[in-house]
Amino acid sequence: MFTWTNGMKKWTIRQKGCCVGRLYFVSPFVGERYFLHTLLTKVKGVVSFEVVRIVNGVVHDTFKSACIALGLYDLDDEWNVCLEEVVGTQIGA
Question: How far apart are alpha carbons 27 and 13 in whole angstroms?
């Protein structure tokens, strides 16, 4: 709702509307939070947890089923691809 104006050193009302500036990383291992994060990056105009689960007029029980209905994930095969990518980009210890 507000932005910081450094030159004036005060908060001013946002001119371009309300938006989320950043989302923190969520590990695929945390389950439903991961799918919620995915939905929040793909679905526009989300105002509640229920609205984000609506796909083509159907309210899904879980965020995972909503992701699958949107075609973002193909059941658990996407997990395997994700984990393979992580292994390839892991910086050594």
Answer: 34
